[in-house]
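thread: overnight batch results

M.L. [08:02]
morning all. the overnight job finished for the chain we discussed friday. pasting input first so we're all looking at the same thing
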Amino acid sequence: MHLKKFLAVSTLVIVAGLVVVNHRQARAGELTSTSGYHALEPIRHGNLTVFPVVAAKSYSTGEFLTLDEGLRSGDVVVTEMGNVQGLRRRPGINPAGHDNAQVNQLVLINNAKRPLLLLAGEIVSGGKQDRVIGKDRIVPAESDPVDLSVFCVEPGRWTETSQNFGASESMYGNSGKSAGVSVGGAMPPAAIMAQPSVRAKAMADKDQQKVWDEVNKQRKVATETVEVTATPPEIATELSSTTSYARVNENAAVKKQVDAVARPIEESYRSLIAQLRDRNAVGVVVAVNGRIIWADVFASTDLLEKYWPKLVRSYASEAVGARGRGSDIAVSRAQSFLENMEGRRETIESEPGIYRHTEISGDGFKAFALTSLLPRTNFDVHVAKMAE
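M.L. [08:03]
and the structure it wrote out:
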């Protein structure tokens, strides 16, 4: 699945001197991968099945800063477009030339001395609306303001709760420290990860209305599920009255149901990661109700461990909403999902010297690879694949 190994050479068009974009039709059989990834026997709980993935090779990823780390330290600032004044390192930098807040635009400044890794599906709360990041990307160290492509996941609000985006109070409280108990002593994520069905609308469809429709659908499912479980009326009322996807997932009753699925799998895989470190455990293939829906694969075990708590909760949210029963699924199907990369069409976007983002459309799937182009890298940092 190392996409950079089998992407054909193609003509690239430079846009605005920064981003390179290419759309073309792939020839049949051109994108067949000998991935180097191997799916192992699954971990199951209820209707959620997770296949650990090990890799033939791992890469050094210690230089990358995650969004969670950057928000906690204050080195990463995310704000509405209209608040960017005074945050520029060089005069004249004004992303996209906008002065006002925009639904599908945020500005990010990376003040850290390390490059920042952003994953599609990460949700930042605050500003005039909560937003979900639309695609994987790398932001260089000590960056000027970067115009982020995002989608709103809170259709009912357009009033500012805070100038900047970050952790929600329910996760950290006013002190900025964890308000909950985490597995293995690790801090919980600062920005939650949207469940696969919501991630798909942002990453593949790239359509704000479809994102809103999916958020509303998942909020309705969560509300109906909670009402069935004899939840105290005030908690159910709180859930039905919010349009915020993040707040739905932070609702006490919803968290309880998600935790019941997520924690056993999180703990089992954490233990397995320790055992498999020398085999380069780097990701997972995910199935719900016996159907494979998703895969997330990283360049190293270290990166997987950083993202695992928020990823497993996103998978568990999908499973809870699906309301099905567990069903056995063979490891051979997970392996086939990893290796089937024959695509009909690919799109490449690149910021020269920083990253390349590749999207492949195939029969029944879409795959996305973020390749680092920073010095001493040139490897796939993250690969996501979704079933359609």
